[in-house]
Write a structure and sequence with these properties.
The chain is mainly alpha-helical and about 140 residues long. The protein contains four helices and no strands. The protein has a domain of about 90 residues: Helix Hairpins. The longest helix has about 30 residues. The protein is elongated.
Length: about 140
Amino acid sequence: MEIVLIFLVGGMFSAGIYLLLQRRLAQLIVGLGLLTNATNLLVFTVARLSREGAPLIESGANQLEETASDPTPQALVLTAIVIGFGVLAFFITLAYRAYRQVGSDDLEQMVSTDLLDADDDPDSDSQDGLLEGAAD
């Protein structure tokens, strides 16, 4: 079973890296999600998958049984899932805002946002107005 998961993790990593190298934000988001899930699956695979016993210490024993699964990787993956979801949610929000500003999700067209003048954006304070107010 681990051999199948190793190939699955390798395929997910290669697809995720390929999608991260694309020019569109939607593909970048899917690639980030694939990398997150591939990493979680890799941690589970390396931690030795086992269904023979629950990770509970029996009364009177000092350690887990040999056949029990290790609870530490499970806790780490649970934490990684929550953090990965937060990062993806932030990235989707950021991509949506960039799409509304530029009108496209192509990263090459987003270079034009660097050239926007501060006077075009009514929400931002211009540096000249700040300097004139400080001089008075």
